[in-house]
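Researcher: Here's the sequence for the chain we discussed earlier.
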Amino acid sequence: MTEDIVAGVLRQWQQVHPGLDTGPMAVIGRLNRCSALLQQAADAPLRREGLTRPEFDILGTLRRMDRELTPGRIARETFASGAAVTKRVRQLQTRGLVARRPDERDRRVSHLSLTDEGRAVIDRLLPEQLRYEAGLLEGIDGKRRTELSEGLAELLVLLEGRLGSLLD
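Model: Thanks. This is the structure I predict for it:
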């Protein structure tokens, strides 16, 4: 296997600080690098549709939950700030993909849903996006992909437990 950029960084640190445990850097450095590369590459079908990843996430959240949601609920589901969700929903509304309905009891609250066009876009785009993402992972066989997914799930649960309490 070809050496990745993080391996070179780790080797350099070992030369500067031979006794230093760079194991955490090996994992987190690779996760960060993969995340950055995926951010650049994984959104090509979305860009062709004129959507950003965060806008796609809002459409996907409304579709998979299949009911009206408040902007606050969407923010929690998509790990975005309320202001960011408001801005993205406004853009999706302008494109006719999302509808906003004011709450009957509290005018400060609104309920969001997909329009017919929004549902058609997400239903058409999701399979294409999944095929594209599968192509990005093509070099990893099914068993290794499952192991990687399970390991990342374990890390995610651990981090959500530790960092969740720090962020609240």
